[in-house]
Specification:
two-stranded antiparallel sheet; alpha/beta; six-stranded mixed β-sheet; 41% helix; globular; 201 residues
Length: 201
């Protein structure tokens, strides 16, 4: 899922990474903010990404929202690596958005280690980078994946929930976590945007 909306907004981030000395420029303009929404399968990354984008659109805040996994959905020749192509696609898309004046990016992806996070930051070298992890009970996340994935890989995807979650626990790459269970989707998305410093309320 990739979306673009127009408008303007000033922000005062709560916790972020500052890019010093290099200007953090893309497409000739300053990339202000990168918000990465991470979490295991079934945490609700794509749903929260979409809702956050809708909230920003209603407030006329210019941004692009990108579901990174969707950029690498392919079966490639054995010599190719889908993750490499996925990040190349991200670089191209972000360049296109930046050329249109987009300076705020939301990204949904399960970030498993520092190397993946570093790569995202290199592709979108924003002045302010914040990582939000969505959390919920294993049972709830498995149930969501089971309801969503109805095809031949359902069992594999459901099993992936419990395998990926401990990896994210150990990595501890998030700046803050937001619980996405037994709460309205809009409330969760607003919580993410407020804690990231993108909106006030």
């Amino acid at each position: 899922m990739v979306s673009l909306t127009v408008g303007s907004h000033s922000r005062s981030p709560r916790k972020h990474e500052k890019i010093k000395d290099q200007g953090a420029r893309s497409g000739g303009g300053l990339t202000e903010s990168l918000l990465i929404i991470t979490g295991t399968m079934g945490a609700g990354k794509t749903a929260v990404l979409g809702e956050a984008s809708d909230i920003l659109a209603q407030r006329q805040i210019v941004h692009a929202a990108i579901d990174l996994d969707a950029l690498g959905l392919a079966h490639l020749p054995s010599a190719a690596f889908s993750d490499s192509v996925m990040y190349d696609n991200l670089r191209s898309i972000c360049g296109n958005f930046a050329a249109l004046g987009v300076r705020r990016f939301l990204l949904a992806r399960a970030i498993e280690d520092e190397a993946q996070l570093k790569l995202c930051r290199e592709i979108i070298p924003a002045a302010n980078t914040v990582v939000c992890r969505l959390v919920a009970s294993i049972q709830a996340m498995k149930r969501r994946v089971r309801m969503r994935e109805l095809g031949i890989s359902q069992r594999e995807y459901v099993a992936r929930v419990a395998k990926l979650n401990p990896l994210l626990d150990r990595a501890q790459l998030e700046d803050f976590a937001v619980r996405n269970e037994d709460r309205p989707l809009t409330e969760v998305a607003i919580d993410v945007l407020v804690q990231a410093g993108w909106i006030s309320t």
